[in-house]
From TrEMBL:
Keywords: Disulfide bond, Glycoprotein, Repeat, Sushi. InterPro entries: Compl-Cell_Adhes-Reg, Sushi/SCR/CCP_sf, Sushi_SCR_CCP_dom. SUPFAM superfamilies: Complement control module/SCR domain (SSF57535). Transmembrane segments: none annotated. It comes from the Eukaryota. It comes from Macrostomum lignano. This is Sushi domain-containing protein.
């Protein structure tokens, strides 16, 4: 006689496991729950009076073995074993983490073998499962094991900022102060290694950046990049060459311009590094007072030291011109009298004019002679008597009667008589007398025989 053949049984359970790459995967598979120990190759393994030993698999209860014997009734002597999963206590509380998800294979038996929970870390913390690694996981799954305990759960630790202390100290021209570490909530201060000569490249108004390792694994303002570019040497802008507005009077037109009065030695363009010293010199026509510095210096404030400026060379009094008077003066600086680029205007006396330009006014400007390094007045044209145009000829028209002897008819004849001026075809200087005479048969009733 034979009893029913006994075969091992399995239970389908879902579980989870961590791959070598740090990725969690969920799996569903059949786990053995009942084992029967006998020699399956024995043809009498289920024959009358044959004994089989059974027990529950690891993770299942009861743990005691059960002996089954095939009876004459062709039934096994004991009921077949029924295994159930071992129970775990409630999942442990983990500092700086919380249970985000829990999975029970059976709602009737919470926290049993192969059930699992998912922990998530609070911001700024991770599970570090590889010793010495600076990369962790924000999620960790723990399974109820066959020994009724929860699988290993690493204690969450503060995350690491991606920029290490070596990265920070490698930033150009930056000194790292008070660095407490590179993990979450660690702090450091960044300053230019020489605050006198250097400044932060992108935020030159800042003298120091106090940074903290934040929950996103970045330091304060790291994304904004305000300190990541490091420090650069301070620069003063290109020196501003002082200019003074002047009007220079020309014959064709007046020229108004800003005259540079200083040049740097050597001449430079573009920004200059802090503490650069440049000599200064006055341009032609100007001189530097003894109290003015001979150089300008780029200061730590990125400003140049001040320069008192140059002074225009003085001119002599404007020349006097016979038969003219000085009508007015033009001084670029009213408080100064007759300096470089100033102008004086001359007006002619009555009856005179300036030669060449042939008008009754002229000017002289004070300019600079670079050969003799002196000021001089431009030429004032000599005076000449004004010219009168040819005088108008006074004419008188008469009608003279005339008889035709043949027809005895009177014919009128017109005759024009003019005043003769000698010489009549020239323009003469003012104050020159011209003689006049009347034609025959006429006289000047007032006795005038000349005009001026």
């Amino acid at each position: 006689k034979r009893c029913p053949v006994l075969t091992n049984t399995t239970l389908s359970l879902s579980s989870t496991e961590l791959s070598a790459s740090g990725t969690w995967t969920s799996t569903s598979q059949n786990y053995p729950d009942v084992f029967y120990y006998y020699d399956s190759s024995d043809p009498y393994c289920n024959a009358f009076n044959y004994t089989v030993i059974s027990h529950c698999a690891d993770g299942f209860l009861p743990e005691a073995e059960r002996i089954l014997t095939c009876l004459d009734s062709k039934n096994w002597s004991n009921s077949l074993p029924s295994c159930y999963r071992k129970s775990c206590s409630a999942p442990p509380e983990i500092p700086n983490a919380y249970i985000d998800l829990q999975f029970n294979n059976s709602a009737a038996s919470p926290w049993s073998y192969m059930d699992y929970v998912v922990y998530k870390t609070v911001p700024g913390y991770e599970f570090f499962y590889v010793p010495g690694s600076t990369d962790g996981l924000t999620e960790w799954r723990s399974v109820c094991l066959e020994n009724a305990s929860w699988a290993y759960i690493p204690t969450p630790e503060r995350i690491y900022c991606k920029l290490s202390d070596q990265n920070l100290t490698a930033i150009a021209n930056v000194t790292v102060l008070n660095l407490t570490g590179r993990r979450y909530q660690d702090n450091a201060s960044l300053v230019c290694f020489n605050s006198t000569t250097h400044e932060f490249s992108l935020r030159n108004d800042e003298l120091q950046f106090d940074i903290t390792c934040m929950a996103d694994k970045r330091w304060t303002d790291e994304i904004a990049g305000v300190w990541i570019a490091g420090c650069r040497i301070k620069m003063c802008p290109s020196p501003t060459i002082p200019t003074v507005p002047y009007q220079i009077v020309r014959e064709s037109s007046n020229v108004s311009q800003n005259l540079a009065i200083i040049t740097t030695v050597p001449p430079v363009t573009g920004a200059q590094t802090v503490f650069t010293e440049l000599g200064v010199a006055c341009l032609e026509g100007f001189w530097r007072p003894a109290s003015a510095p001979a150089a300008i210096i780029c200061q730590a404030s990125k400003n140049w030291t001040s320069f008192e400026g140059c002074i225009r060379h003085a001119c002599t009094e404007p020349p006097t011109v016979e038969h003219s008077i000085i009508g007015r003066n033009y001084s670029n600086l009213p408080e100064e009298r007759f300096r470089l680029y100033d102008t004086t205007y001359y007006d002619s006396e009555p009856g005179y004019r300036f030669s060449v330009v042939e008008r009754n006014w002229h000017f002289a400007s004070c300019l600079w002679n670079s050969t003799s390094n002196t000021t001089y007045w431009t030429e004032v044209y000599r005076m000449e008597l004004r010219k009168c145009s040819a005088p108008s000829v006074v004419t008188t028209t008469y009608t003279i009667p005339k008889w035709n002897s043949t027809t005895n008819i009177r014919l009128n004849q017109t005759k024009t008589v003019q005043l003769t001026v000698l010489p009549s075809n020239l323009s003469l200087d003012c104050f020159t007398w011209n003689n006049i005479s009347c034609e025959e048969g006429h006289y000047e009733p007032n006795g005038i025989d000349s005009i001026q």
